[in-house]
Write a structure and sequence with these properties.
This protein is α/β, with parallel strands linked by helices. It has eight helices and 35 strands. The strands form eight sheets. A seven-stranded mixed sheet has the order 5-4-1-8-13-10-14, sandwiched between helices. It has a seven-stranded parallel sheet with strand order 17-20-23-26-29-32-34, with no helix packed on it. A seven-stranded parallel sheet has the order 18-21-24-27-30-33-35.
Length: about 425
Amino acid sequence: MNKKEMIAMLLAGGQGSRLGILTKQIAKPAVMFGGKYRIIDFPLSNCINSGIDTVGVLTQYEPLLLTRHIGIGIPWDLDRRNGGVTVLPPFVKGNEGSWYSGTANAIYHNIRYIDEYNPEYILVLSGDHVYKMDYSAMLEEHKKNNADATIAVIEVPMDIANQFGIMNTNEEGRIVEFEEKPAKPKSNLASMGIYIFTWDVLKKALIKDNTIHEASDFGKHIIPDMINSEKNVYAYKFNDYWRDIGTIEAYWKANMELTETVPVFNLYDEFWKIYTNIEHQLPQYIGEGAKVSQSLISEGCEVYGEVHNSVLGPRVIIEEGAVVKNSIIMAETVIRKGAQLDTCIVSEKSEIGENTEIGVGENVPHITKARIYSSGITVIGDNTVVPANIIIGKNCEVGGHTLEEHYLDGVLESGHSLIV
């Protein structure tokens, strides 16, 4: 193998439990975003746009769809003989086999893969954020500072800084303290979960920490230990669009931002393209009586009803008389005649029956999952069928092939679940 200056390790094994039923059968990085993309497309595209041609993708939870999507990396120009993209699931070693038990533990188990490329630097990425970033500019800062570790940070409002890992720095940008979700934050520099390490330093730290912590983690163990042992750890300030779409509300809002006339996050940027694995699609078709306003409509969609302020994935069908507002409808879903949907997310390959109403009634938090469903958004899981003439409230979750008899008098009240 030729020596690589820097390779990327992309952590894509997370379940994303706060996305509720959206990640019941799909790993969070494989969830669709912005119509035709999957969340993992963003860090993968950032890598190739930044000149990084070797990426290890660490999978764990529900890896099938993710592995199939990545394939051999053709859409991202990562189908290479020397480097390219490699999917790295947990594996048996000798008589031992175990799940990755922490972010650093996952990298530790793949030291041999990294050493094959003998890199000087290693870029560690999360597979569940939406952003565009030139990692080569971050590497230049890392080199300039002669750093052992460089952590990408973004300024967040002080009133929500207690929700993030906060990096406190001195005047030179060197990190002197790391606080995980502090009650009284001293700064507003939030970690983005994007790290560059000098590989020989990180390798030693991983081997050492593995003997101390079974579930070795960058945020809890590796980075605090580096700071406390006076390693050169620097912050790299990022000043552009970045979204952690780890909750239903954040996911919905980030998609809705794409429908604005001049979106904050531009998917049409020719200079920094976002690539995805999507086969050739038919063009969109808008029927004679259809009405579409301020919406993102993907390839292969057929719209005969109304779509307003919504995002439609590939091959979605909206039949006559159906009205979709403020909603995200993912690939290959059919909305039947007369259905009315407002402020909801419908996952892939689902079917909503004729004259069914979703997102109506009182906005009450979910009775047992208020942490996930409390912002008025109702979520329908992938491969779900909702029969005709049903009424579904707000903050509901529905999954599976549901039948009329599953609904009490044809209604699912706000704040309830129906999963069959």
